[in-house]
Write a structure and sequence with these properties.
Strand content: 5-15%
Distance between the termini: 43 Å
Number of helices: 6
Strand order of the largest sheet: 5-4-2-6
Radius of gyration: 21 Å
Structural class: alpha+beta
Helix content: 25-40%
Length: 161
């Protein structure tokens, strides 16, 4: 099995040649191409990305349920040798990442304000367990929020905002 190194940099620099190596020029091409995208997010910060998209397009607020997240009891402690090997294998991806994100977790080509104040009075809850029509989507107004959340918390303590 052949493993591809620096997949992020390869993808965004359009380097699909198995026999060619990724280099600094590939990093620069990848960064230039990535900066053409409107919005990029570090996956670690996906909640902020979701909130930004919801705010930008004035979508309803979204309530997430705990049954949508999973806790896998997997622990792996790589050795220093394994870490060094990974760092070498991904060195240009790390450079590409650092050039895009610097000290932030969201990148916006158009300088989007990620701290938008919203005036949206609607909430969206997606759950097959607690919807009126059993299709899984429940849209309600802000003034119903407390009543609905209390109802859901009494039935099953699986909701968080």
């Amino acid at each position: 099995m052949v493993y591809r190194d620096n997949l992020l940099t390869r993808t965004f620099s359009n380097n699909r040649d198995n026999n060619s190596e990724v280099n600094e020029k590939g990093v620069e091409i990848a960064v230039q191409n990535l900066k053409n995208l409107d919005l990029l997010s570090d996956f670690e910060n996906w909640n902020n990305l979701t909130n930004s998209i919801i705010s930008l397009f004035d979508f309803p607020n979204v309530l997430y349920s705990r049954f949508q997240s999973h806790n896998y009891p997997f622990i792996y402690n790589p050795s220093d040798k394994e870490i060094d090997k990974l760092m070498d294998f991904l060195r240009f991806d790390i450079k590409t990442y650092n050039k895009i994100f610097f000290n932030k977790k969201l990148y916006s080509k158009n300088n989007i304000n990620f701290n938008l104040k919203r005036n949206n009075n609607y909430y969206l809850l997606s759950s097959p367990l607690f919807s009126n029509d059993k299709k899984g989507i429940y849209l309600f107004k802000k003034d119903q929020y407390e009543k609905i959340i209390k109802k859901f918390q009494l039935v099953n303590k699986i909701y968080r905002i």
